[in-house]
Each structure stands twice: as structure tokens, then as C-alpha cells.
Amino acid sequence: MKRIDKILETGIYIVGYALILVAMSQIFVKTIQIDNSLFGLWGLLISLVIFIMNKTVKPIIFKLTLPITALTLGIFYPFINLFILKLVDFIFLNHFNIRGIVMSFLIAILISFVNMVMDKIIIQPLLRRR
Which of 30, 101, 104, 129 is most exposed, with minimal Cβ within 10 Å? Predict the structure, then answer.
């Protein structure tokens, strides 16, 4: 009987998380819009521009806002990603649109997390090989 309860409890958790993911995906769809014309070329260009800005503009902004980041114990750091996203939104005008500050902030936090994980999993092992 305990096994059946455990299976049902796990199933309820999975369904709950799936519903949350579906709701979040609907919010993301309404928040971020990328032009699908030219077979995804705009998405590729946008991701390249975000990458280039993360490597060039972001360190400068980080050094300028280091006192604010230190005072807020690192909470200000996702705002730098938010600034980069809004700057890319301004550059690409009609091909990349971000609406809403709250979801944009959550996406910036997600980008910070993915950057951190990718740095730990891919970048650091490649640098250690040299």
C-alpha cells in the first residue's frame, strides 16, 4: 500500500511541475518574441549579439557597478543581464521584443544561471586541458 501511495504522490508532483512549466512557457511566449522569418536567422543573430555583448559590454558595466553589486550582495548582477537584453531589444527593433520587467528580470536570472553552469561544465574543463 505504501508503494502505491508513493507512486501516486510522485505522479501528483510530476503533474504539478508540468502544469507550472506549461504556465511559465505561456508567460515566456507572451514576454519574448523573436522573428521566425528567414529560417531562424534572426534568432541566431540575436544570440550572437547577446554573446558578443556579454563578452565586451558586460565586463565594463560590471566594473562600473561593482560598488552597487557589492552593497546588494550580488542581487544587482542580474540587472546587468537585463540591461544587455533591453539593449539587444533596442538594436533589433521589430525582430526581437521583450515585454514586461518582471519576466525580463526572471529571464535575466535564468541567463545568469545558465552562464554559470556552462562556465563550470564546458569552459573551465577546456581551460584546464591546456
Answer: 129
The residue behind cell 521566425 is: 36
CB 95 within 8 A of CB 42: yes
CB distance 89 to 97 below 8 Å: yes
C-alpha cell at 82: 537585463
The amino acid at residue 94 is: N
The reported pTM is 0.68
pLDDT, tens only, 9-23 = 665 656 555 555 555
Q: What is the phi-psi region of residue 98: left when phi exceeds 0, alpha when psi lies from -120 to 50, beta otherwise?
A: beta
Torsion of CA 72, 124, 42, 96, to 10 degrees: -10
Helix (H) or strand (E) holding 93: none
Q: Cα–Cα distance between 123 and 119 in angstroms, integer? A: 5
In whole angstroms, what is the distance from residue 29 CA to residue 9 CA? 30
CA distance 74 to 118: 19
